[in-house]
Amino acid sequence: MEQRRIRCPTGGHDMRGQTLGFGFQPPAVAASSIITAVQQQDYLASVWLRRREKLEHSQQKCIVIFALVCCFAVLVALIFSAVDIWGEDEDGITEDNCSRNCSIVLVENIPEDISFLDNSTSHLPLSVGLNNLLDKAERVVEIVSPQWLLYSSDYEQVKQTLGSTKLDNLTNHYAEVHKVNTTALTKGNIHSSFWVVDRKHFYIGSANMDWRSLATRKELGVLVYNCTCLALDLHRVFSLYWGLQHKDFIPNFWSKRLFPYFNRDKPVNITFNSAESSPDAFIPKDRSSDLEAISRVIQQARHFIYISINDYLPLVRSNSLSSTYWSRIDGLIREALILRKVRVRLLISCWEKTDPLTFNFIWSLKSLCMEQANCSLEAKFFCSKSQSDGSFSGINHNRFMVTDRAIYLGNLDWVGDEFMYNAGAGLVISRPENITEKSFTVVEQLQAVFERDWFSRYTLSLQTNKIHVCNKHQVTKSSRSGPMPIRVRHVCGVLPLDICTILKRFFCCFVL
Q1: I need a labelling partner for 191 at 20 to 30 A (CA). Which of 42, 68, 90, 144 fits?
Q2: Nearest Cα residue to 349 out of 105, 114, 144
Q3: Looking at the domain 101-511, which fold is it?
């Protein structure tokens, strides 16, 4: 093409004397003119082709520039989502000025048919503690609960309508309710159970917003007052759940607002009831999982580990016929027993859903200490009272661990499936090294609760060549025809303060 764009005579014709005029031109001139015209047309074609190439090149550049602009816009959006740019500063609370002079209170629900000795350890009733939180609320109450069944009659209503009229009633009183399809997100459920009040006070523990947690189950948790450092962190966990409504995937990028202020690698030193403690933060960036918190507490124990849980089963079941050994916690306990000679006590609930394989795994742990010096594993089962309708009352629904150095409070059973698929929130409070023996910290308080339950008349020790039949009533139930009757008890009507009514005043809540 470049050779064609050079306009020069060709074919040996002499172009001198060519003129443009009227009249007859010699044949040579006519031929030359034809050649020139062809060359001119060829030049015009080459110019048009060059312009077309430039146009296509310009279009390509525009496409590339547009793509770069789009990528830049997405990058900016991601950066903005991770940086506080809207002028909101979480009510002015920062890592430097949040309140660390906290007050902590253990709360329990002890069913009516469970009684301990008069001089045994006792704590504030759970229903009273939750009402105290509501009385302190001035702006907002944020609640995460796997269930919302404050009346026993709600069970039948939920089965029929797949919804709760109580939640609808709260919505009519200006409460905001988000429901999350966790099955689509993790193939599991959210078992987290906590309250956050004004980003200043909070509750976390084993109890759900379930009438059984307030009446027939043995539950334990903590109320923490005037503790904006940790309350703000727990509020961020609430915000994480809150943003998952209507989503069928978990984001790959999290907002900076969901990052923890404190975690296992950066604990905050705060004061609990005039005793110094160092709790970890309750999974966006830098946030510790429940499993990591449990592992750390077990690994740091020097003398004893006391565990009170509803279920213990180190298995992951992909289906009803296939199971895989899940060694994360079970292996840590074995390591503590054999390598560090830490004394371990396991207090496990014995109820209708106790898996018979639980006893096999406990025996496996206990067998490690046979003919081993300074190796001690003890296991007991908290057996609740069976009712005439086959249900169990007084189930020990606690989920906590206490060691000589720390406590852990959580929402998950120690079952492989729970940690693989379900979400939970936990609190770790460490006992400082320089504490005096006279100080009765929350660690000592929880140890006293465990020992009260351990030595109570409701526990049975693991016996040689004997498996306790915790779910014996299921055999009888399966032989009956028709649905099992449900024990009816309107809990809200018997509380010192009516939680059902008080909750209508104000709050945001999150349920499944």
Answers
A1: 90
A2: 114
A3: Endonuclease; Chain A (3.30.870)
